[in-house]
Amino acid sequence: MKRFALPIFFILAMTGVAKFYFHIQAQEKVQAMINRLSPFVTISYVDLDVEFNGHVILQEVTLSDSYGKTLLNIDELVVYDFQESERQESIVPATLDIELKDVLIHTRPSASTQKFAFYELGYQELHADMHFIWHYSDFANTLGINSIIKVNEVADVSAHFELANFDPDQWRYYLRDPSSILLMSVLFSFHDHSLLNKVMAYMAKKNHTTTADIREQFIAKMNFYKHQATANDKQWRENLSEKWIHFVQNPDEIYFSADNKEGVSLRKLRITPRDKLPELLNLKIYLIKIKTME
Fold first, then answer.
1. Which residue has the higher pLDDT, 76 or 72?
2. Is-contact 76 102, C-beta < 8 A?
3. Whole-model pTM above 0.85?
4. Which of 39, 138, 179, 233 pairs with 75 at a CA distance of 20 to 30 A?
């Protein structure tokens, strides 16, 4: 038995050393990520762990703005991938893949604001899981963003954006003039669990009417929208109104997509007449499945 003691001890010791080494590397990686994101958000955490596959786990994370105001409280933040830009002066990463687990969403309005809050819809406390993937190519000057947000018992939202002719280090300039950015593709999906019915009930209460009446008013507006079509957007308006009416009557999952192989500048989007946008962007809308309301 003694002859196995030394090899076992050696293996345990090496495992401990490797764990310590990965932990130090992870701390450096996380600090680099925090530094890169500091112009946008301040990140603090209580504990850090690292798995042998390289995934870094931060416990009890707080995201704050530049004024120190708490934006999100996160039970666990997992960093799957983080790659710094090849440009040393860049303030944004080339790749960032993170998941936020059990994010607490405050439903009540704060004392300093009277803005609408989820609490008014009847949600007492909300928890969400979020997954964000950011990939920027210095060579192609393109940016791809994927995000999935799942709010328990409320809704799931996913979005994909692909931009070209985009330099993320010029983000301050883009806040003033984003017209040179090219929109390549967009995909947005919304999977309803209870939100639409909650909103309908809230609007009915506010307007002293019934949920059925609010639903009928919306359907009437969509039919009016359909009949305002021009020759350019007739098919799009008919499709959009038909899908929205089905969705309002049977809330489930709806998708929007837009794409243009050559890309469309944001300047062109701004000056293009509304009735020509569906063709320019190849706009589409889908209903994945329909369920009957109880």
1. 76
2. yes
3. no
4. 39
